């Protein structure tokens, strides 16, 4: 799908998108970002469109930034997360909030509200737990490499894993499943 001029790409329904994930390597970065936003907002084109508009504004302000940095800015705590390395509570809260978008609850194998829960936890183990629990419901937790010591990622439908990998590669995002964090 191509993104032309100043308007948003044509909206597609979920069935069309499920069956046709192809994108052309010659598509603009903007068109690839649009497709990525559709993947991380499954069934919520309104949010994807809002974030796409915010992406365009962010790009107009800082066109030299990497696409993933602008994407992270417009999706944070709504369709994705970026938390400081030592803030495990925020990581759990962000993942819980994202999962709640689809009426899912992550069983953390303990009570994250208990101060002792985080004594033996690390980001890798928490991401692994979230990945496993979300996979049971047909979702995939993704993380990407940041320029600092933060943890960042988003969630897609598992059926969209291959198009997500392809788009991430095309946008130069070092993306991996949450289970591969380490």
Topology:
Layout: H1 14-19, H2 29-40, H3 45-61, H4 67-75, E1 80-83, H5 88-100, H6 123-135, E2 139-144, E3 151-157, H7 161-170, E4 175-177
Q: How does the overall form come out from the CA principal axes?
A: globular
How many individual helices?
A: 7
Please indicate the percent range of residues in DSSP E strands (runs of 2 or more). Answer: 5-15%
Could you state the order of secondary-structure elements as H and E? HHHHEHHEEHE
For the terminal residues, how far apart are their CA atoms? 35 Å
For the largest sheet, list the strands in their spatial order: 1-3-2-4
Q: In total, how many domains does the architecture comprise? A: 1
Residue stretches low in confidence (pLDDT < 50, at least 5 long) are 1-20
Tally the beta strands. Answer: 4
What is the makeup of the main sheet? 4 strands, antiparallel
- Overall pLDDT level: 88
Helicity range of the residues?
Answer: 40-55%
Question: How is this structure best summarized?
Answer:
The chain is of the alpha+beta class and 182 residues long.
Could you explain the architecture of this structure?
The structure is a single chain. It is built from seven helices and four strands. With 182 residues, the protein is α+β, with helices and mostly antiparallel strands. The chain has one domain (16-180). A hairpin with a 6-residue loop joins strand 2 and strand 3 (151-157). Helix 2 runs antiparallel to helix 3. Mean pLDDT is 88; it is low at 1-20. Residues 33-177 form the DUF6630 domain. Residues 12-24 have a biased composition (Acidic residues).
